[in-house]
Structure formats: C-alpha cells, structure tokens
Design a protein that fits this description.
Largest sheet: 7 strands, mixed
Strand order of the largest sheet: 2-8-7-6-5-3-4
Number of strands: 13
Number of helices: 12
Helix content: 25-40%
Oligomer: single chain
Strand content: 5-15%
Radius of gyration: 22 Å
Structural class: alpha/beta
Bound molecules: pyridoxal-5'-phosphate
Distance between the termini: 32 Å
C-alpha cells in the first residue's frame, strides 16, 4: 500500500472546520509532537484566565464567596451533560473517577441481587474497585472477554468502558445496556476515553449509570474532578455509600441524622474542588462549542490517516494494529503494537520528540484529540516513528521500567 503524502494531510488541515480551535489552547511545542491527549489533554487558554479569576475571588472574598461556589458541582454537571447525552440534573462533577465508580457500583448492589460482570482487560482501577466490592458484598465477579456471554441471571451490575483504554475499541453502549437490562442488571459505563471524543448517547441508550475523567479529552487538567451520571428516575432509589454532609438536606442545619437531598446532589460527599471545577467548566464549554458531531467526523478522519500510514509504513516493520479497522468501532486513539513497544516508546520521547504513551504488554498509544490535533501532527508522528525504527534508534534504549509510562 502506498503511503499518503504529507501534502494530503496539509490539504485536510486547510479544509478542517475545527482548525481554529487549536489556537484556543496553550501551544508551546516547538518541535515536539504531542499525541497523548488521551492521557492528559492540553491547557485551554481560557482556563488559565478563569482559574486566575477564581483565585482572585478567593483572595478578595474569602469565605463570603461560598454561596456562589456551593452549587458548582451541579452547575458544571449541567454544562457537561450534553456532551454525554444527558439531561440537566443528571450529571455531577465531583471526586475522582475511581471514587465515583465505587459510589455508583456500591449503590447499584444495594438495589440488585446477583453477580458483577466486567471485562477482564478493562482499566485496572475499574477492575480493582469491582474486585473490592465483590469481596466486601459477597458477590460473584465475572471478569470475562465478552460481557454479553456472561449475563446468565442473576446479574446485578454490568460495568464497562465505552472506549477501551488499550485498544481504543468502541463498545456498543446501547446494545450492551439493553442486554444488561434483559438480564435484570444495571449498566455502569466508564466514559473516560469517550467523553469529549465520541458522541455519547446515555439518555437515548437508557443507560443507568456512568462515570468519567475530565483531564483527558475534556482538557480540565491533571487531577481535575471527575463526573458521574445517574439517570433521573433512578436517583431517588440509589444512595451513595459515603454519607457526607454535602449530600445532606439543609446541610447547614447540621442535624443529627443523615437525610440526603433528592436529585443528583445526593451523590456528593464533601467540599468540592472549586478551582478544579473552573477548569472543568472551561474545558466542557470549549468541547460543546466545537460540537460532538464535528469532533467525531474529524476524529474518524485523523485515526483513519494513522491507520493508513500504519499499513503503509509500520506493518512492514513488524507493527500490528491494535485498534479496530472499522472507524465506527473505535474511539480517538490508535494502538500500535510491537514486541519492542516499550523501548520504541521511550526512544520516541527521548530521541524523536514525539510524546505518546505505552500500555503493556506491547501497545504504543497515539491519542489524536480532534479539537486541537492537526492532520500533519498525525502524519509527522507516524513518520518519525517509522524513521526511528528503520534506523534502529530504539535498540540503543535500555530495557527497564519507569514510574509513569
Ligand atoms: C478508563 C479509565 N478509568 C479511570 C481512570 C482513572 O481514574 P482516576 O482519575 O480515578 O485515577 C483512567 C485513567 O487513565 C481510565 O483510563
């Protein structure tokens, strides 16, 4: 297969209706090519401004600003809701993805009997939380490759990533939700690799519960608060296992008994991260302005370019595509598998100034967030990769491990 010329990537950039969004981000790359926005998204310029304003507010108003801050987890949830196909009042921004997953999975087990079903290859924190819960609540945990084949009742909960963190495979959210319901289970989705990258139709699919990170495709910054979704008709029936004062009716009456509010606010625990919420709001507003459908169209074109270049240049060098070939079956990153993937990834960072990440045993992930990634970035990132392997530069990298990969 003949490789696509760089001029073709340049033409795609020239015709890109989202091209203007790139300048809305801080770009201090020089010669660096950043293809790790699926791990940590870029900093929107507006975020720096909003954070500065909120810090100013803190400095000048101190505790008197709390009446303006206290509802931010719900208000920013409403800003984020359209990006995941939810209605106002169904999304809360709080805590981390791990903690939110625990809260919602625990709540689901209160109202459903039976096993927990999840994918054996899913993200570690999801598996660990479910392992812990299954052990604590004396439930069977079915960790399988294909969740649909493991739904023999009784099943309480099916928990799954919408886009797989390693392969980028996009799960059939509506189909799996329907299968879970048929088995009598609730469906809990991890949207960390889809929110802001792939249109997510939680409401249309009748999905029950969801969680997700905001620091990847939503560009809210390292450790920014995560989100959770609970379908409105389920909210009254579910209860968070963490009985914190931010969920309490008449919170400042500080009464003797826990009595959680109605609505999504009942899934709060403690004091929200006001600074973090400013960053989530800025990131979510930017993505909403770009529009889910336009983002998806560009994302498919970007990953398709990377797949074509893989076939032309990388496959002959011993690479294998870890990502589904059908565009409608993948998210916004591609996984490039190679037996020497760890050393190649290190060499890319240290010698070629390309920043991807590595997920064992053999996947180099190229994340291509459509809101700021250019087609020439995708082209150059694959071009540098093939040159590096052709020259054998990775063979000079020592085998080993790193604290963060
Ligand atoms: C699918 C998925 N879930 C959860 C997380 C992380 O959750 P937390 O923000 O709680 O560390 C990640 C992080 O990369 C992820 O990829």
């Amino acid at each position: 297969m003949a490789a696509v010329a760089r001029a073709h990537a340049e033409a795609l950039d020239a015709a890109d209706p989202l091209a203007g969004f790139r300048d809305r981000f801080v770009l201090e790359d020089g010669d660096r090519i950043y293809v790790d926005g699926n791990s940590l998204g870029r900093l929107p310029r507006k975020t720096a401004e909003l954070l500065a304003a909120r810090v100013e507010e803190w400095g000048s108003r101190l505790v008197t600003a709390w009446p303006d801050w206290i509802d931010l987890p719900l208000e920013v949830g409403d800003v984020l809701a359209p990006l995941v196909g939810a209605r106002p009042g169904e999304v809360l921004v709080a805590d981390s993805t791990t903690v939110n997953l625990y809260k919602l999975a625990h709540a689901a087990l209160d109202v459903r009997e039976g096993a927990v079903v999840a994918r054996a290859g899913d993200f570690p924190t999801d598996r660990y939380v479910l392992q812990g819960l299954a052990a604590q609540r004396d439930r069977e945990l079915r960790l399988v490759d294909d969740v649909r084949s493991a739904l023999a009742p009784p099943v309480a909960l099916v928990c799954l990533s919408h886009v797989d963190f390693r392969t980028g495979a996009l799960e059939d959210l509506a189909g799996v939700t329907a299968a879970a319901h048929e088995a009598g289970a609730l469906a809990l989705w991890d949207l960390s690799h889809s929110a802001g990258a792939v249109p997510v139709g939680l409401g249309a699919a009748g999905a029950d519960l969801a969680v997700g990170c905001t620091y990847k495709y939503l560009n809210a910054g390292p450790g920014a608060p995560a989100f959770l979704y609970v379908r409105s008709d389920l909210q009254e029936r579910l209860r968070s296992p963490i009985w914190g004062w931010f969920a309490q009716r008449e919170q400042f009456a500080m009464g003797p008994e826990y009595d959680p509010v109605a609505g999504i606010g009942r899934f709060q625990a403690g004091t929200p991260s006001v600074l973090g919420l400013a960053a989530v709001e800025a990131g979510a507003r930017l993505l909403a302005e770009a529009g889910s459908e336009r983002l998806r169209e560009k994302s498919i074109a970007l990953t398709s370019l990377a797949v074509d270049l893989h076939d032309a240049w990388l496959a002959p060098l011993g690479f294998e595509l870890g990502t589904p070939r059908r565009p409608d079956q993948r998210g916004a990153h591609v996984s490039l598998r190679h037996p020497d993937g760890w050393r190649i990834c290190r060499a890319l960072i240290e010698r070629a100034n390309v920043i991807p990440d590595f997920r064992g045993p053999d996947s180099i992930r190229y994340g291509l967030p459509p809101v700021y990634t250019r087609f020439v970035d995708a082209w150059d990132a694959v071009d540098r990769l093939r040159r590096l392997v052709e020259e054998g530069a990775h063979l000079q990298v020592e085998h080993g491990t790193a604290r963060v990969t």
